[in-house]
Here is the input.
Amino acid sequence: MSIDFVLPENVELSTLLDELRELSWAAADILIAYARGKDPEYGFQKKLNVKDKADGPVSEADLAVNKLFLSGLKEKFSHVQWQILSEETAHEEIDGLKHNNKDWIWILDPLDGTKDFIEGSENYAVHLALLCKNRPKIGIVLIPERNELWVGIIGIGAWCENRDGLKKHVSFSERIEISELILVSSKNHQQPEFLNLLSNLCFAERKKIGSVGCKVASILRGESDIYISLSGKTSPKDWDMAAPHALIQAAGGAFSHADGRSLTYQNQNYSQSGCLIASHGKSHQKICKQVMKFFSLEMPEYNI
Here is the structure.
């Protein structure tokens, strides 16, 4: 174990991972049941009701997984002084979190890619990240439809395991030149500024996937090489980025702002605004330089 890796007092890594596995696969059971129109596990609401909110839809599936993780973490680690921030309850937690100076915080997105989930796509995921002093330490990305649980621990490494515990290593591609790279991007955010940026970079191919966790997993499998997020009228939030950030960094890749700055968490409204870039790391600086050059020449008014 890396000497830089620490956990809260009285928390053993092996025990923590075992509990996270149990919660994750229970969440997979719930989501797959809802996706198939079956009765969900653990007595949750049977019908998949969907409500619209300002930044996207929320479903009974989101709320069920949210409740599962919040109650599970509190019950299994009642002796640990850490906070839990969830997308579905963030509006209730903001004041409490701002006045709470605990070093350790979980950031949860119980269903990243809700639109994909509702439309029947397999590209949805559960995100869970553990941060210490606002820096990611552990990232969990669960992709139920692929039977994949991605685990990343900063200073130790990253891997993928299935429900039976069979592990696979990260397999970044060997593509290095920008003209060879495969971009994975959102299906739903297609603002003109982003499309102009892509035409300037001239990647070899572009794949469209909904969930950020699924995008990063695509890079970890070697199917793609880079993900770029460019804020428009809305920005991604901490719960979109924290777990994928920890995961790809633990694997030896990179996730940063276009100017090279590290992502920071628990800012105002939990927004991750600007231009964010995740990659296998081999061409990260080169890509960042190209993106910054584009903004300086084509969009000098854009707030990186």
Summary: The helical segments are 13-35, 60-76, 90-98, 114-119, 192-201, 212-221, 238-250, 284-298.
